[in-house]
Every structure is written in structure tokens, then in C-alpha cells.
């Protein structure tokens, strides 16, 4: 019975896919190209993709002759499409962007990486950059950012201060974009939980929501896009914000009176992953190895997008020593991928319920 | 503006060629020819619309095996029902607003000529050519803290501190109404234009005042158009997505947002399918109810 249903469904899926492919075929790409000449890389697009193109893709093409086709898709969209491609048996992408917890949730779609087989990773990447399914690409944080004009004498320095409206009065901004676990982790720290109980651990969800209840009345902006979080600062709508470090640093460079607190920031890690059914798997592997080389490219890239990368020499240059960076990183919140994959849906539903009341 | 001669009426008829000719055009093609003409569209819709939708919706019943568990989850979790109700409330409010604002515009369009008519029609139609995204962002520019609305109010000395206009339910209603307004104006205008003006004149001739003639003749005859617009707007608003996400606050969570979240961020397609199915049934139900109540059919038959 189950089998028959599944079979019928699969046939229908195949029919649909065929129909769409037939239609799409009129005006679109040629059949999948041969291994060795092309590579399809999916990122979130925009200026970020342009910076990748300028600093990495072009150099890779120059060295290997392999043409890189950049494709842009939001994180969410990317996985839905990758899954649909895998189901229809026609995967067109090679390298995808893997966010926090997404490796565990999409393990069935990802190719295992041969870290030892990538010499540049061994010699040039920071420790732990290469994992079973992912190669660390960019590093940033969700940080506490505050208006330096508002808080001249006493500045907020921790998530507890973010919650302390008596000592640091004024409207706040917090994220509301589909990764509520970041706010949960931060709330736990604000509630006095030590980092060791939060970092890479299952989160105490009820306790976190109880703490979030306390800050909710003082949050005037719940941002959904990075641009909204910046606009809230520019407009003077908030004096303190929980936002992406890259966005805060961009404001800083534009002359806004804003300071970033890295203490216990939530790590924003994005990695490269190779799809299991990637049409150009060898080229993809070659690119990952190539990506980790050339520190000068990493430096140029970082200055353009305000994200650090996992290249050790580049971090040495930016932070004096990559150890300084690693120390800061050890003080940041990271997540238990498996726990997140297991509980993400429930957390998101609970968050939606909480935020919409 | 008093008594009419038969010559006037005759002139008026010939000035509106659309009405008389339309009925003659019917039945020009035989049954087979008609079917053949429709076939390409039918096949296209079947292949790229109905098949994928049926395939997608069926997932809510057969994944991972034959089950109703996704519906149990949907109705067991208060969030979904609450958001569904809120979505319906926002859709209903938008429909009411577009009706109140759109009807007079449609009426005006039937009463003016020349440049004025062209200007009004352009004002109604041009927004349709603009992407919903652009129109929503325009509302952000207008409504934000240092936006045009707040700045004007401050300049005029009406307020001291900027008002919180963006990220509120009000902002969502205003933006959605603006985005959907043409879908009310155009069908109402179409029905109004097809009401023979001699009917109003007859009413006036029989002693009715302007208001009474409107209420007793024009308004009832234009209801099918208003009903068509209302159904269209209500159904479109139910699935609205971009505008509420951009100009709404955290509380203006719409069901479409939840569906997309389940489908893309959480890769829970069966639950997304179940939510879509409930939304589809609701939309169909409302369309049927409207049809029954207001007789949308009539509009079609009257051309």
C-alpha cells in the first residue's frame, strides 16, 4: 500500500519534472556540461557574490580554465531547491552555502569531504575549518551594537546589559528572521547561564523564552533583513541592537556613532558544502582547495564584505595574530548542530507563536 | 439635465458599441473548434499548474505514509489557527477598504471624459505595472520614522515626536489596500460602464432625486462588479506575503509566511502542503459563498 502510493507519487513527480523541464528547455541552459569545464556555486548573491567573483572565482578560472557559474538563492530557498533537484534526479548545482545547523539537517544531500585530500586546507586554514561535510568559508557574529552618542559614560558590555533597561535605557532592535535559536542562546547568557552551558549544548528553551519576555516591551524593531537592522540605527529608532557584525561594521565605516561588543557574540559561520549529486564534483573539490590559498585575496574579500575567512595568514594580518582571533572566537556562542537539526522546527513554531502575540 | 428625447437615447446607444456587439460574437465557433482553441492553455495549466499542485497537496496525506497527522498537528497547534484567523481578518479589512475607496473612483471614471479620464485611468493602472516589492518599499520610505509622512506632520506642527507608523497592522492595511485597489476599481468600472445611462435618466424622469436614482438603480446594478472585485481581493489578500513581511510588525504574521517558512526554511513539505490545503479550501469556500450571496454569475451574463 505504502509502496504503491510512493511509487505513484514518484511517477507523478517525474512527470511534472519532465513537463517543466520540457517547457523550460525552450529558452534555457544547454544540457549539463562535461565534468572539468564548469562549476556552479550557490551563494546568497548581491555584493557578497560579486566580492567572491572578483577575489576567488576569476582567479580560479584563470588557474584551471574551469568556468564558475554563480547562482544566487537565499539560504532557505537554496535547500528547498537542492532537495527538489535531488528528488527529481537532476542536480545542477555543485557547491552550496551551509549555514549553522544546516549540515546536520541536510546531511542526506551533502557529499563527505576529504579534508586530508585538500593540501591548502591543511597548511593555510585555521584548525577545525574542515569538517565532515563542510569547509568553513566566512566568520562573523551576531553582536551587541550600541549608539556611542547615547551611552557615553557607561557602555553596555554584555547581553545582561542588553536586558538591563534601567542602566541602559532606550529602544532596542532584535532579529526575527528565521534563526530564533540565536536570540534564545543570547537570552540564556543574559539570564546568567555560563557560556559553557550554552556553547555547543542543547538550549534550555523555556528558560530562554521566559527571559525574552522581559526584554520584549523594549524592543521596538524586530528586523527581518540586514538592511532593516541598519536603517533602525540610521533613523535613530534604536539605541542598541542585536545585529550581524558585518552590518554593524558597515555602519561604522559610514561614519555612524556605533560600537560593536564581541563579548559572547553568537558566531555566524557559513561554510561551503558539495552536493552529493553534483555534476562537477571534481571541479568542486578543486575549488574548495583553491579557496583556502592566497591570503591576500582573503584580506581583500574581507575588507569588501566585512566578514572574516578561515585563512590563517589573513587572520594573522587582521588581528595581529590568528590566536587573538581564536581567543575571541572561543568566547563566542556556537551551536550543537544535531540538537538544532532535531529541534529547529519546534523552536521556530514556538518563536512564531511568541512573537505574534 | 431634465427630459430626454428618444434621439438622445439612440445616440447614446451607438456611442457604446461594446455592449450590443458582444452578444453577437457569442457562439461564433463550434464546440470542437472552441475546445481546440482552449486545448493549449488547458494542457499548459494541467502540466505546470494542476499536476504540481495536486502532487504537492497530496504530500500532506501520504507522507511519510497514509496519514492525517499533519492535519492533527495543524489543528492541534494554536498558532496556526490563530494566524489563519488573523490572516482572514486582514484580508476582510483590506477588502472592505478597497471597496470603500475604489467604488467612488470607478464611479468618477464613468462620469468624466478626455484628459481627466485618461489621468484617472492611468493613476489606477500604472501601479499595476509596478512590482509589488517596489510599491511595498515605497511605503517604507513614506511611513518610516524619518519618512515623508512623519516629516510633513512635524513641519506642519501637528506632532512633536515622530509617530510609529511602520511595522504596524495599520501600515499593512494601508499598503495592501493600495496594492490591491486596481482589482476593485476595474471590475466595478466595467459594470458601471455597462449600465445603460437611460435607466438612471428614467429614474430621474420618474421623479427620483440624484441620490435615490443612484441607490435604487446604479448601485444594485453595479453590485456584481463589486462582488467580483471583493472576491478577487479577498483571495489575493489571503495569500499575501511580501507586503506584510516588509511593512508589518512581528505581530502581522500571515499564513503565507508560515507556509513558506515550513516549505523552505524547515523543509517540512507535508505540513506546508497541509497549511496550503486549508488555505485553498478557505479561499474556495469564500468564493462560493460570495457567488451564492451576491450572484457574481450575473455579471458574466450581463456582459
From TrEMBL, chain A:
Pfam families: SBP_bac_8 (PF13416). It comes from the Bacteria. Residues 1-33 form the signal peptide. This is ABC transporter substrate-binding protein. Belongs to the bacterial solute-binding protein 1 family. One of its GO terms (molecular function) is thiamine binding. CDD domains: PBP2_polyamine_RpCGA009. It comes from Agaricicola taiwanensis. GO terms for biological process: thiamine transport. InterPro entries: SBP (IPR006059). One of its GO terms (cellular component) is outer membrane-bounded periplasmic space. It is found in: Periplasm. Keywords: Periplasm, Signal, Transport. The keyword Mitochondrion does not apply.
Automatic annotation (TrEMBL), chain B:
One of its GO terms (biological process) is transmembrane transport. This is ABC transporter permease. Residues 84-290 form the ABC transmembrane type-1 domain. It comes from the Bacteria. The lineage of its organism: Bacteria, Pseudomonadati, Pseudomonadota, Alphaproteobacteria, Rhodobacterales. The keyword Transmembrane applies. GO terms for cellular component: plasma membrane. It is a multi-pass membrane protein. It comes from Agaricicola taiwanensis. The chain crosses the membrane at residues 32-54, 88-108, 115-140, 171-192, 213-242, 269-290.
Amino acid at each position: 500500500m505504502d509502496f504503491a502510493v510512493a511509487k505513484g507519487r514518484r511517477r507523478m513527480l517525474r512527470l511534472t519534472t519532465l513537463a517543466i523541464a520540457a517547457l523550460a528547455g525552450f529558452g534555457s541552459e544547454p544540457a549539463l556540461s562535461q565534468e572539468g569545464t564548469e562549476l556552479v556555486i550557490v551563494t546568497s548573491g548581491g555584493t557578497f557574490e560579486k566580492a567572491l567573483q572578483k577575489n576567488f572565482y576569476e582567479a580560479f578560472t584563470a588557474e584551471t580554465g574551469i568556468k564558475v557559474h554563480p547562482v544566487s538563492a537565499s539560504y532557505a530557498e537554496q535547500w528547498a531547491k537542492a532537495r527538489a533537484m535531488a528528488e527529481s534526479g537532476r542536480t545542477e548545482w555543485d557547491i552550496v552555502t551551509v549555514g549553522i545547523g544546516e549540515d546536520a539537517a541536510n546531511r542526506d544531500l551533502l557529499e563527505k569531504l576529504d579534508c586530508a585530500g585538500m593540501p591548502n586546507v591543511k597548511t593555510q586554514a585555521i584548525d577545525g575549518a574542515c569538517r565532515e561535510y563542510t569547509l568553513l568559508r566566512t566568520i562573523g557574529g551576531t553582536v551587541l551594537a550600541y549608539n556611542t552618542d547615547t551611552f557615553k559614560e557607561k557602555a553596555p558590555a554584555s547581553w545582561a546589559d542588553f536586558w538591563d533597561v534601567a542602566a541602559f535605557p532606550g529602544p532596542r532592535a532584535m532579529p526575527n528572521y528565521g534563526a530564533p535559536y540565536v536570540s534564545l542562546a543570547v537570552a540564556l547568557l543574559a539570564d546568567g547561564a555560563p557560556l559553557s552551558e550554552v556553547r555547543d549544548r542543547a538550549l534550555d528553551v523555556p528558560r530562554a523564552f521566559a527571559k525574552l519576555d522581559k526584554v520584549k516591551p523594549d524592543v521596538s524593531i524586530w528586523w527581518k533583513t540586514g538592511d532593516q537592522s541598519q536603517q533602525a540605527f540610521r533613523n535613530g529608532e534604536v539605541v542598541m541592537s542585536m545585529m550581524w557584525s558585518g552590518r554593524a561594521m558597515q555602519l561604522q565605516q559610514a561614519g555612524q556613532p556605533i560600537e560593536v561588543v564581541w563579548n559572547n557574540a553568537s558566531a555566524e559561520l557559513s561554510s561551503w558544502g558539495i552536493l552529493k549529486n553534483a555534476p562537477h564534483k571534481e571541479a568542486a573539490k578543486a575549488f574548495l582547495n583553491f579557496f583556502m590559498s592566497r591570503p591576500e585575496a582573503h584580506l581583500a574579500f574581507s575588507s569588501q564584505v566585512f566578514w572574516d575567512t578561515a585563512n590563517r595568514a589573513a587572520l594573522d594580518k587582521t588581528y595581529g595574530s590568528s590566536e587573538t582571533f581564536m581567543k575571541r572566537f572561543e568566547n563566542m556562542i556556537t551551536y550543537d548542530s544535531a540538537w538544532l537539526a532535531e529541534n529547529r522546527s519546534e523552536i521556530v513554531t514556538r518563536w512564531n507563536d511568541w512573537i505574534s502575540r | 439635465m431634465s427630459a430626454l428625447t428618444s434621439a438622445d437615447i439612440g445616440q447614446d446607444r451607438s456611442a457604446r458599441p461594446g455592449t450590443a456587439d458582444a452578444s453577437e460574437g457569442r457562439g461564433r465557433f463550434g464546440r470542437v473548434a472552441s475546445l481546440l482553441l482552449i486545448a493549449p492553455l488547458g494542457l499548459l495549466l494541467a502540466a505546470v499548474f494542476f499536476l504540481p499542485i495536486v502532487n504537492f497537496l497530496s504530500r500532506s496525506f501520504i507522507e511519510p505514509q497514509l496519514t492525517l497527522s499533519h492535519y492533527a498537528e495543524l489543528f492541534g497547534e494554536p498558532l496556526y489557527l490563530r494566524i489563519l484567523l488573523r490572516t482572514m481578518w486582514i484580508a476582510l479589512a483590506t477588502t472592505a477598504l478597497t471597496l470603500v475607496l475604489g467604488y467612488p473612483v470607478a464611479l468618477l471614471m464613468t462620469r468624466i471624459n478626455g484628459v481627466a479620464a485618461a489621468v484617472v485611468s492611468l493613476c489606477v493602472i500604472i501601479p499595476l505595472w509596478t512590482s509589488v516589492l517596489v510599491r511595498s518599499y515605497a511605503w517604507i520610505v513614506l511611513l518610516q520614522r524619518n519618512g515623508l509622512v512623519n516629516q510633513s506632520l512635524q513641519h506642519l506642527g501637528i506632532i512633536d515626536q515622530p509617530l510609529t507608523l511602520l511595522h504596524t497592522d495599520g501600515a499593512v492595511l494601508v499598503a495592501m489596500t493600495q496594492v490591491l485597489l486596481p482589482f476593485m476599481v476595474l471590475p466595478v468600472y466595467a459594470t458601471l460602464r455597462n449600465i445603460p445611462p437611460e435607466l438612471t435618466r428614467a429614474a430621474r424622469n420618474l421623479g427620483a432625486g440624484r441620490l435615490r436614482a443612484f441607490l435604487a438603480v446604479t448601485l444594485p446594478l453595479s453590485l456584481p462588479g463589486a462582488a467580483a472585485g471583493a472576491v478577487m481581493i479577498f483571495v489575493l489578500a489571503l495569500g499575501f506575503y511580501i507586503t506584510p513581511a516588509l511593512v508589518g510588525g512581528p505581530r502581522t504574521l500571515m499564513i503565507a509566511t508560515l507556509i513558506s517558512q515550513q516549505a523552505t526554511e524547515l523543509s517540512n513539505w507535508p505540513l506546508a502542503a497541509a497549511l496550503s490545503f486549508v488555505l485553498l479550501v478557505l479561499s474556495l469556500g469564500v468564493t462560493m459563498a460570495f457567488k451564492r450571496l451576491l450572484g457574481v454569475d450575473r455579471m458574466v451574463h450581463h456582459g
